[in-house]
Specification:
By secondary structure, the chain is an alpha+beta fold. 51% of the residues lie in helices and 20% in strands.
């Protein structure tokens, strides 16, 4: 005569626990692929993966904040220059991203050399350009330049890049 609560509930509990572990493992695997989508991503321990995910989310929050600031800068530069289109000077921001730098330049469309001069500054600061995009808005050109440090351990001195671009855009 089987005792009360013998084999059936134990098997059910074991199966539920196995399903829970498999589900958790699947979710952690998906999280790992979102954080590091390369096919040869390292194997993460659960706690390390959660720490990495937290750091990644914080980095994304900083990027969102930086993009909001850039949007405000672009909107304010549009408002300020609405009446004086011909006299608008170049506006720029420099944002440090780990071992990379993002430079946003807004210049008059007749200033054809600002981009090449800015690229020269980045190259001289050991930050070769990885990606450049631009868009036109009326008589303005908006450039976004991403540079990666030659040596990730050393990084890029973004304050020095900022100062050199400031001197560059101040003109003669």
């Amino acid at each position: 005569m089987p005792r009360r609560g013998s084999k059936v509930p134990t098997l059910t509990r074991n199966m539920l626990e196995r399903n829970r572990r498999m589900f958790t493992k699947d979710l952690l695997s998906k999280l790992a692929s979102l954080i590091n989508p390369t096919p040869r991503a390292p194997k993460w321990k659960s706690l390390d993966l959660l720490d990495q995910a937290t750091a990644h989310v914080k980095q994304l929050e900083q990027r969102v904040e930086m993009l909001k600031q850039r949007k405000q800068l672009l909107e304010s530069s549009t408002d300020e220059t609405a009446g004086m289109r011909g006299s608008m000077s170049t506006v720029f921001t420099v944002t440090e991203l780990d071992s990379a730098v993002e430079v946003c330049l807004i210049s008059r469309s007749n200033d054809k050399f600002i981009l090449t001069r800015a690229l020269d500054v980045l190259e001289e600061e050991a930050a070769p350009v990885v990606f450049v995009s631009y868009s036109r808005a009326g008589d303005r050109i908006n450039y976004i330049v991403y540079s990666q440090a030659v040596c990730s351990r050393i990084g890029i001195d973004s304050s020095r890049v900022h100062e050199r671009l400031k001197r560059l855009t101040a003109g003669p």
